[in-house]
Amino acid sequence: MVPTLPKNKLMGVVGTLSFGLPALFAILNLGPLVPATFVLCAFILLPLIGILGDDFPLVEPEPAEPEDAETPATDSHGVDDRTASSDRSPLEQLRERYARGEVSEEEFERRLERLLETEHVDTERPRDREFE
Predict the structure, then answer these.
(1) DSSP 5
(2) Torsion of CA 116, 117, 121, 123, to 10 degrees
(3) Phi and psi for 103 in degrees, rounded to 5?
(4) Which of 6, 70, 81, 102 is the most exposed place for a label (fewest CB within 10 A)?
(5) Per-residue b/e over 10-45, b at no fewer than 16 CB within 10 Å?
(6) What pLDDT is stored for residue 78 in this prediction?
(7) 10-residue averages of pLDDT along the chain (132 residues)
(8) How far is it, in rounded angstroms, from Cα 15 to Cα 46?
(9) Domain coordinates of the chain in residue numbers?
């Protein structure tokens, strides 16, 4: 059986070898192997691993995430991806998160005030004026 590694670890190993082996070959005075090893590792293997990912023979496939995970996936701002991509209003999304217990009462009230302020500003947009 062929040993496999996660993609990031395999890229780290190949990256380290792309500098370590040519240095060793240079010390041992193995002339043509120095550039050949560097080019093979740095310009052929690393891009192949990066492009092919899980399809590369030595890369361990990433485990699939279960669809019914208990913790919702969130983006970098802590917003639930499931609610962010839906057609519900931000107020409905906030209420749902509060109902699920994801947001404390204080946080709910703070965000609610901010939403209502923003909503108030949106409804008072300046109207087009006719210029004389």
Answers:
(1) B
(2) 20
(3) -125, 135
(4) 70
(5) bbebbeebbeebbeebeeeeeeebbeebbebbbeeb
(6) 55
(7) 84 90 94 92 89 84 62 53 63 86 87 80 56 56
(8) 7
(9) 7-55, 81-123
Q: How far apart are CA 44 and CA 40, in angstroms?
A: 5
The pLDDT value given to residue 83: 46
The residue type found at 36 is A
Residue with tokens 């210029």: 131
Beta bridge partners of 74: 80
Distance (Å) of CA 34 to CA 15, 43, 52, 61, 76 = 15, 14, 26, 32, 43
Segments in the chain forming alpha helices (H)? 7-27, 33-38, 46-52, 81-84, 90-100, 105-123
Report the length, in residues, of the chain: 132
Tokens 């209003």 found at: 89
pTM score of the predicted model: 0.46
